[in-house]
Amino acid sequence: MGKVLQIQPVTRIEGHARISVHLSDDGNVEDAYMSLMSLRGFEKFIEGRPAEEVPRIVNRICGICPWMHHTASNKAVDGCFGVTPTPTGHKLRELLQVMAHINDKILHFFFLAAPDFVLGPDADYSVRNVIGVVKAAPELASKVVKMRQLGQMMLDRFAGKAIHPIAAVVGGFSKPMLEAERQELLNDTRTLLDFSEYALEFAKENVFSKYMDVIGELGVITTGFLGTVDRADGSFRIYDGTQRLMKADGSYVDFEGEDYLDFLGEHVEPWGYGKMPYAKSWDEGFSLDLDEPKGIYRANTLARLNVCEQMSTPKAQAALEEFRQAFGRPAQATLLYHYARLIELVYACERTIELLEWDGITDTDVRAKVNPGAGRGVGVVEAPRGTLIHDYTTDANGCIESANLIVGTTHNIGPMNMSVKQAATSLIKDGVYDQGILNKVEMAVRAYDP
Amino acid sequence: MGVTTALEWLSSCSGCEIAILNIGEDLVELLTEHLDIVHAPVIMDHKYFGQCGDEGTELEIPEAAVGIVTGGVSNEEHLEVLEEMRKKCKILIALGSCATQGGIPALMNGQDSARSFDEIYQTPSTDEGATRPDQGVPDLLDRTYALDEKVKIDLMLPGCPPNPAHIAELITALLEDREPDLPTKSVCDSCPTRREGKGSVSTVKRYTENAEFDPEKPVGEMRCLLEQGFMCMGPVTAAGCAKRGAPSCIEARVPCRGCFGSVMPKGNQMLDMMNALASNGIDFKSVVDRRSMLRFSGAHGNLRPPRKAAVKEE
């Protein structure tokens, strides 16, 4: 009988997962799985809560992307109570959500993923981490730490809490922005925009060009993609827009968030707590078969860049053009998620500046009148890890009767399993494996930033 | 070499880990000069079953002088990891409200959790006939526990998230072998808002409208939110969130919901708050969803399933 390698915990990711590699007697890969190990039950325990409280409960789904749960939830509660936020309320929510993307991308690329590239995938595990990066490249590390901290403190100063926010509310926002705050945020964001351009150039030179052969092979699979685009011109969007579901051949359908049940389903396997969303509307069922996957699409950075027609900001658009020239549309190589992440970083900085420069951003009419009552609302935003869907129904008292959530990371559970299997099968041969090889298998997961 | 340190996360969201990062530039010095991290799934690659996943079936964490655990205990794996951390770490710290009092995931303690976990696999988007996964995934416990319900804990630092300055103080105090200087009072005690006396408030209102305040003026010139008639958990919540002279939520002009847990480590925020309201002449029946007052402190038996749940509507 062959053996099973248990890579546990999967490290430098933002949750609890295990990779199991099943080897045959002759040491070749029979199968490989990535299982999510935790289950908390948010959909159930928000039942009965007053809906306006829920945006400050569900942000605890993720301490890294609490802003996205916070805004998606607020949009869903707006729908339940039939309220349209004031224009400034909407824009303040978008501003904070886009700002939160800035930190997230710096964190993921430099703190979690970079050790594999800066120190090398085969470096010893005891140094292959952010502390190792600090020692190997102190100047870069000091810059990165400063920039991430700046981004977090911008959120914290203006909104009271960067982690587990409370300032977005049903109907809009809890407080207006002062002119002095706007000027300070603008200054800080310009600093971050400079850094984002530097980060993209740094990565192009030191990561993407250096590891091109790895990018072309590791964890590569062929799937469809899901993201959010502008209703009018198909531009890249993360706070509001229409959902675009693209097939691997580049053809696509657009649908409104509230109709998601017609397009997406969730498949369950007995070996992991995470549900696996798939494209129900393709009518081909669900399969993780590497040669002939069924219903499988991906979300998160690479997906968003693949589905959009263009970026609406100039520097990000220039970067997207260069990216498309090199890798086509839709691009499939899994490690390109990192490249796409840094293009999104540039967009997030540019879009933050646009929103801050909007005249109405300091208007004091930040919250519309709200009457709790019965209704249904579906709130959709783009979280760093993918399209985030909150769907609530409220009772006459405005308390949650039922809730359904499709969380960003979960769209990629199926694809991550495929990438893990692809990587393990091509890297482990005839019983030969070591910690470096197994780390490369994990890199296929890390690209998705789960 | 620095002080050996191990980090683990159980039923958690990683917000506490981000709070550690938010210590900022001082963290770089702590990590590179004073601490020697030997295990920390979020940032480093030490594995439970050997680096190739082929060494035994008992999970193994290296010995460390200091252990920091975030998240509560809600499944068999959490328990195994926590017990291993206790065994291997000289000083064990519970970081964040999930670790100290159960936190948000302990809201599940107020339900028939077995049934609720099953229902998660029966939502409108989930394939028909799906059932709760049960192969190779850790079994769920009957409820979510705070860490001190399962093992001895040496130090506790609550917060959702905890305050980065206090995390830094705790670590520094340990390095300097002294008692940490941490807050011991209530959120109200750290709140600068203006108190004018009870006034005519006899019921509490839901937070469906913004507070009254002049945005140009500092928080200290806004009237206390309880006095404005909003439910605010400040009186019964441990202090510690204030970073710039006012509690974090109050800074955003939003009422407190108790995320640092009760002032006394095993207190009951709901009972305390009901008493506080009643003693101020406020009708406690005007509170919609009283259980929600225990949303950060549902462990220690505070939140239990409704007694009739088992025989409900068949």
Fold and architecture overview:
The complex is a heterodimer of chains A (450) and B (314). Chain A contains 13 helices and 14 strands. By secondary structure, chain A is α+β, with helices and mostly antiparallel strands. Helices cover 22% and strands 12% of the residues of chain B. The chains are: A alpha+beta (450), B alpha/beta (314). At the A-B interface, strand 1, strand 2, helix 1, helix 3 and helix 4 of A face helix 1, helix 2, helix 5 and helix 7 of B.
Structure keywords:
heterodimer; A: 450 residues; alpha+beta; 4-stranded mixed sheet; 3-stranded antiparallel sheet; 13 helices; 14 strands; 16% strand; globular; B: 314 residues; alpha/beta; Rossmann fold; 2 domains; 5-stranded parallel sheet; two-stranded antiparallel ribbon; 12% strand
Topology, please?
The complex is a heterodimer of chains A (about 450) and B (about 325).
Chain A: E1 4-7, E2 17-23, E3 29-36, H1 42-45, H2 66-81, H3 87-118, H4 130-136, H5 138-159, E4 168-169, E5 172-173, H6 179-208, H7 212-215, E6 224-229, E7 242-246, E8 252-255, H8 260-263, E9 264-267, E10 276-279, E11 297-298, H9 301-307, H10 314-327, H11 336-357, E12 375-383, E13 386-394, E14 400-406, H12 413-427, H13 435-446
Parallel strand pairs in A: 6-11
Antiparallel strand pairs in A: 1-2, 2-3, 4-5, 6-7, 7-8, 9-10, 12-13, 13-14
Chain B: E1 3-9, H1 15-21, H2 25-34, E2 35-39, E3 64-70, E4 73-75, H3 76-88, E5 89-95, H4 97-101, H5 113-119, E6 140-145, E7 155-157, H6 164-175, H7 248-251, H8 269-279
Parallel strand pairs in B: 1-2, 1-3, 3-5, 5-7
Antiparallel strand pairs in B: 4-6
Q: What is the CATH topology assignment of the largest domain in chain B?
A: Rossmann fold
Number of helices of chain B: 8
Number of DSSP strands of chain A? Answer: 14
Order of strands, main sheet of chain A, comes to: 8-7-6-11
Question: How many domain modules of chain B?
Answer: 2
Assembly annotation: heterodimer
Q: Provide the helix percentage of chain A.
A: 40-55%
What is the arithmetic mean of pLDDT of chain B? 94
Helix content of chain B: 10-25%
Q: Please tell me what the overall shape of chain B is.
A: globular
Helical stretch count of chain A?
A: 13
Major sheet characteristics of chain B: 5 strands, parallel
The radius of gyration of chain B is 22 Å
Strand content of chain A is 15-25%
Highest-level CATH class of the largest domain in chain B: Alpha Beta
Specify Rg of chain A, calculated over alpha carbons.
21 Å
Most extensive chain contact?
A: A-B, 108 and 90 residues
Would you tell me the structural class of the helices and strands of chain B? alpha/beta
CATH architecture assignment of the largest domain in chain B:
3-Layer(aba) Sandwich
Supply the CATH superfamily name of the largest domain in chain B: NADH:ubiquinone oxidoreductase-like, 20kDa subunit
Mean pLDDT of chain A: 96
